[in-house]
C-alpha cells in the first residue's frame, strides 16, 4: 500500500525530498523530508504539522554522535484524522523538539514545536521535518518499516545545462541561480533527467529540455542512491543528466554509478537534488572542502570515478 500525500499537505512546505538522505528509513521512498524554509533561509525553526489528529506519544531518541550536533532527537507520533486518505494511519515525525504532549489534538499547520539539528543531519542539510506513516498495528518506534509514499502533486522537470552563478553560500554548500523556477509558489519543480544523449552531442543550454525524463531526487553521489519522481510509469534502465550517466533506475529508485561531480573541473562532494516551489530554487552544490564566491560562474558535470 502506498500513501498518497496530497497537495494540501505538501503546499505548507517550500521543499520536499523522498530520497535525499543516507538513512534506511528513506529506502524506496518510504519517508519524506519536509522543509518549511527556502534554500537561502534553510535554518528556520518553524515546525508546522503535516497532519491533523491526536498526539499519541512524544519520545526522546538517540541520534548518531556528531561533533556539531546533540546525540538526541525527538519522535512525535500522531494518530491521523486528516488530510483525506491518511485517516487511521500513524504519522512519525522526527527532528522537532515538541511543544505538544500525548492527548493533544493538532490541526494541520499547527506548530508541533521547534525544529532541531540532531546527529542525523549532515552539516549541509537544512532544517526539516522527517515524516513517515504506519498502519495502526505496526511498531511505530522502529526507524524502518514505514509505508511507501507517493506525492499527489505534479512535479515539473526543469532542464539544466549544468552552469550557473553562485547566489548563496554556506560553510558546506553553494547555491546557483539556475535552473530557475518559472512561476514560484505555483507548483513544485526539480532538476530534470534527460533522454540520455551522449555527452559529445549535447545541445546548447538554449536548446536543452528535460525530455520527460522525470525529476531527480537524492544526494548525488554522497548518499547511496536517489529517486526519479513525477513519472506515471515505472522506468528501468540508465539515467542521465546532460548526457552524463548517473546510474540505473528500477521502479523509481536509482542506484548511482561510481561517479564524481565536478565544478569547474574540480571534484566536489556532490549535488543535492530535491523538489521545490520557492523563488530561491537553484542547483545546490555540496562542497565542504571547496569555497565558492557570490557571483562566481560554475560549470558542473558528472564523470565516472577514476578510483571507484
TrEMBL record:
Residues 199-211 have a biased composition (Basic and acidic residues). InterPro entries: DUF8155_C (IPR058817), DUF8155_N (IPR058468), Dup_hybrid_motif (IPR011055). Residues 176-218 are annotated as: Disordered. Residues 5-151, 156-303 form the DUF8155 domain. It comes from the Archaea. This is Peptidase M23 domain-containing protein.
